[in-house]
User: What shape does this take?
Amino acid sequence: MCALKIKMKVIDIIKDAENSGLTRFAFELLPPLKGETIDSIFTTVDSLIGFDPAYINITYHREDIKYIERPDGLLERRIVRKRPGMIGIAVALKSKYGVEVVPHLICGGLSKFEIEAALIEMDFLGIENVLALRGDSLKGENRFVPHPEGYSYACELIHHITDMNKGMYVDSEIENCHPTDFCIGVAGYPEKHGQAPNLSVDIKYLKNKVDTGAEYIVTQMFFDNSKYFDFVEQCRKAGITVPIIAGLKPFSTKTQLSMLPQIFHVDLPDDLVNAVTACKNNQEVREVGIEWAVAQGRELIAAGVPVLHFYTMGKSDNMVRIAEKLF
Assistant: This one.
């Protein structure tokens, strides 16, 4: 028997948390690699559902380019998606656990017609929350190149979704279109987006996204809470009034000392770097990561942050221990 729960938009969940003064727990999942089953997703959620997650985010990954050698010796360029199934996973989780889901939707690699088709499918399936992102550059490209019939910026994607919420679809010849009712979340970067010239400009772009229709912000991971608090303060000064959810990632391997700053453009505090460097193996690193995430979470909860959003990367053993201490 599937779990049943009244549909709620993320913004309403956040407001309820703010009104009650109780910080909620949320986390993000990666779809399994093509060819794998959904069982790993269920295993992760089974271990965390007891902490009453406010919602679960499901990521969407853009295409990869693969070159296959043909019999004539020439290389054939093929587009492959290594982690498909985002909408299917969202529906499966909503049906099985009665939890709200937030599929990610990106600009990268998609035309506006494919984006609209995905949104129509979500609407038919009763999904009313979406995180609107530009997405990353294609591997091997040093800048973001949009689909020829797609969007260059998240703000354009948000505008598309808000138009659909008004019953305005890409095909303007269709009359009396059904208006969707999506709650739109967007990403924010406490240490600025890697391609922004500075934080002030990045916040200006973020305000454009909010003014276009975003109802809440979830931050990129950060490991120094002062970065988050300063970011929120600067956003408020810029006129951004929507809730700003804190995004956290438990540190788990030594390689993340170089990988996370390189990929996500985040600074790691000296105390964290020294503690991880002193570890003899990754098991010790995971213990450091758990303690650090718990300390971060406790300070953010004390400050009244309504939701803590965890980037689990599909791993739940350390997340369970963190949630046990925070929720």
About this structure: The first strand starts at residue 24 and ends at 29.
